[in-house]
Backbone:
């Protein structure tokens, strides 16, 4: 008799265990074309000014989480570091970046790939100042380099000025 009771609980047990097992299955990763739009930034880079002579820093960009994210590790030439996580959000159809610097600055950006470049925008608020709008564009170049142009506006986007203009060149192994 106890055996019959145990077997009668089997369908209820399967209803609980089967969804848990399905959740633990490995996923195929983020393989759709949208997730590959920023792959041109992946690599080990030396970042210079437009003349290629002044080294501004180094940046290592790696693909993480089965291709679902790009991780940035920045090291400035004059000290300071920072990291970002970049990812495509399929629910919004937009790319996002969350940047954290060693000085405590945080920047959140959103945008997308269009006209041959990745462009993201976001706002920051300094402790004692107006909101700053940030517009960053990463453009892959025909010679394999990437240009990162960071524009800043302190007047709600009426005027913009260059905050950073970096030229990424792959470092030799």
Residues:
């Amino acid at each position: 008799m106890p055996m019959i009771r145990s077997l009668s609980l089997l369908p209820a047990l399967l209803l609980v265990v089967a969804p848990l097992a399905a959740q633990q299955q490995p996923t195929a990763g983020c393989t759709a074309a949208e997730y590959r739009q920023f792959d041109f930034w992946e690599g080990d880079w030396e970042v210079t000014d437009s003349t290629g002579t002044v080294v501004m820093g180094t940046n290592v960009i790696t693909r993480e989480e089965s291709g679902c994210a790009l991780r940035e590790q920045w090291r400035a030439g004059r000290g300071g570091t920072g990291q970002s996580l970049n990812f495509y959000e399929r629910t919004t159809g937009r790319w996002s970046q969350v940047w954290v610097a060693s000085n405590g600055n945080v920047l959140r950006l959103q945008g997308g790939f269009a006209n041959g470049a990745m462009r993201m925008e976001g706002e920051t608020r300094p402790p004692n100042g107006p909101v700053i709008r940030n517009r960053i564009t990463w453009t892959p170049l025909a010679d394999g380099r990437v240009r990162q142009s960071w524009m800043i506006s302190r007047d709600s986007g009426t005027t913009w000025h260059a905050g950073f203009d970096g030229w990424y060149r792959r470092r030799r192994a």
Observations:
- The first helix runs from residue 2 to 23.
- Confidence is low (pLDDT under 50) at residues 9-18.
